[in-house]
Design brief:
- The protein is mostly helical and 106 residues long.
- The chain has one domain (2-105).
- The protein is built from four helices and no strands.
- Helix 1 (10-27) packs across helix 2 (35-78).
- The chain starts with 9 loop residues before the first helix and ends with a helix.
Length: 106
Amino acid sequence: MLSLYDFSNSWVIAVGLNAVLLAIVWLLPKKLLTAWGIFNAWLLGVLIWGTLGFRGYVIVCVYFVVGSGVTRIGMEQNELPKSVPVLEVQKTFGVQLSPQLYVLLG
C-alpha cells in the first residue's frame, strides 16, 4: 500500500511534516495559535516546503523565530514605567502630556 505513494515528492513531505508539527502545537498546554492560525500556518508551511524545499523552509522558520524574539524584546523595552517622572515642562507650564510625549521629551 505504501508503494503507491511517491515519498520523494516534496508536496507529500510538506503535507506530512506540517501536519505533525502543527499537531504538536495544537496539543501544547499553552495555546500559541488559534485553530484558524494553525490552518494558515499549515498552508503556509506546505506552500513554502513545496515551492522552496528544505532550505527555504528552514530559512523561513529561522526568520519567524528570530522575528518573534525581537518582537518580544521590543515589547518589553517599550513598556512604560508605572510612574512617569514629572518633566520641567509640566512644572513650568502645568501642561499635561501624554505618556508617549514623556518618552520623547524625557
